[in-house]
Amino acid sequence: MKGYEEMLEEGLQKIPEEVKSDNRLEIPKPEVTISGSQTIIANFIEITNVIRRKPDHLLKFLSRELAAPAHIEGSRAIFQGKLYSGLIEKKLESYFKEFLYCPVCKKPDTQIIKQDRIYLLKCEACGAKNPVRAIK
């Protein structure tokens, strides 16, 4: 009969490398172009699909943070005004920090749920629930 340590080692060897990696979420870099007086994020829907968030939630956040009206057209987000990619990337990082990564275990396996009148960031990895602000 095998001991616990032997069985543990055997189990660890069977885990694929991509599962062992901590950096399994690869968020695509925003493809930002400026066209006249508009700024376009060409891969906006792709970003929202990877982070598993509603496009309207991320768009509303960016619109407020960048102080620029925006709308979704196809798979792109179009903002009024000239916004540079560095600023957009910085705002996306702040969104990820506040609304994507679990503050307890730092994993991106979260979802936003509404409990009573409070929005919570619920972690599917560790089970933690933390309040997040509503974006109006």
Q: What is the 3D form?
A: elongated
Count of helical stretches? 5
Largest sheet: 4 strands, antiparallel
Number of DSSP-assigned strands: 7
> Which structural class is indicated by helix and strand composition?
alpha+beta
Number of domains: 2
Helix content: 25-40%
The end-to-end distance, rounded to whole angstroms, is 61 Å
Strand order within the widest beta sheet: 1-2-4-3
> Radius of gyration over alpha carbons?
19 Å
Overall pLDDT confidence: 91
What's the CATH class label of the largest domain?
Answer: Alpha Beta
The secondary-structure element order is HHEEHHEEHEEE
Note the beta-strand portion.
Answer: 15-25%
CATH architecture of the largest domain: 2-Layer Sandwich
Provide the low-confidence segments as ranges.
none
Can you tell me the CATH topology of the largest domain? Defensin A-like
